Amino acid sequence: MNELSVTLLLQTPTVGVRDVACNGACRHRSASECAEATHLVFPYRGAYVRHVGRQDTVAEANQLVFFNQGQEYAISHPIGGGDACLSVSLDEALLTELSPAEQLEDGEVAVFRRPTRGVDPAVQALAARLRRGLARGALEPLQAETLTLDLVRRALGERASPARAASYGRRKLADRAKLVLASDPARRWTLGEVAAEVGVSPVYLTQVFAKAEGQPLYRYQLRLRLARALDRLDDCEDLTDLALDLGFSSHSHFSAAFRQHYGQSPGDFRGAVAPPRRYA
Q1: Which alpha helices (H) appear in the chain, and where do they start and end?
Q2: Which residues contact residue 70 at a Cβ distance below 8 angstroms, ignoring those fewer than 6 apart?
Q3: Which of 106, 107, 248, 275 registers the highest number of CB atoms within 10 A of its CB?
Q4: Which of 79, 93, 83, 95 is nearest to 39 (CA)?
Q5: What is the Cα–Cα distance from 222 to 166, expressed in whole angstroms?
Q6: Which residues touch 13 (CB under 8 Å, ≥6 apart)?
């Protein structure tokens, strides 16, 4: 049975932020649940599939997942390792104000039309900074609320990820490829290996994935690796070991990719959030 761990990081009248981790012990579809409020969920470790009616959605670190109020859903873990997510809830009026109208269904309650929305490296980095800062007790409430609202605004804004038109079949194929990559982000997959796992030709896979996700497979995998690095930076003692463990060829390769995506070296990023101050 899946074991769920929920850590409340912030709760104010405006926002709520939780760190949610699941061991992913159950591979099969869970019993149905219902979201009591709308949550914007930022996966940062592992992957899972969310089932809403007949619609299945892969949730992993390159996606923002919408859990709409009153919407029944179930969860499955087709790959091992469990998952962890940063879950954000907002005051209803504030969420409606921040959300572009074209992303919402008509009605009084904020219900998002699409199940997920792609996020860019800047959003991933901001989510990691918020999570780390709250966990360390390094953020005062006003700063934490401001960062949370900025995270939501950036994730929902047009610059975060332009809407991509894709047929149902293309999305399903892309989702299968995402699960393959998420099952072992550090592995140096060949295109043929991924295509064989998905069950299509390499040429067709590259064409369909790029159209569905707006980026090639290799870049998607790189972003998965870097998202995992964001999660593991605090606990690693040697950045070279971390780089090799994540599948990078060297520390310099890892640092260059990290800096290109997040604007800082791994070491500078790790030291950006100061530890909580101690008072005599």
Answers
A1: 92-98, 121-136, 141-156, 168-183, 191-198, 202-213, 217-232, 239-245, 251-262, 266-270
A2: 34, 35, 109
A3: 248
A4: 95
A5: 22
A6: 91
Lookup: tokens for 203: 């040429």
The model's pTM:
0.82
Q: Are 23 and 81 in contact (CB under 8 A)?
A: no
* Token pair for 169: 């079949």
List the one residue out of 132, 109, 113 whose CA is nearest residue 17.
132
* pLDDT digits (tens), the chain, 280 positions: 668 999 999 999 889 999 999 998 878 888 899 988 999 999 999 999 999 998 999 999 999 999 999 999 999 999 989 999 999 999 888 898 889 989 998 887 888 999 999 999 999 999 999 999 999 998 888 889 999 999 999 999 853 444 455 688 888 999 999 999 999 989 988 888 999 999 999 889 988 998 998 889 989 999 999 999 999 998 888 999 999 999 998 999 999 999 999 999 999 998 876 555 444 4
Written as one letter, the residue type at 251 is H
51 within 8 A of 29, measured Cβ to Cβ: yes
Cβ contact 44:131 at 8 Å: yes
Token pair of 100, please?
């572009």
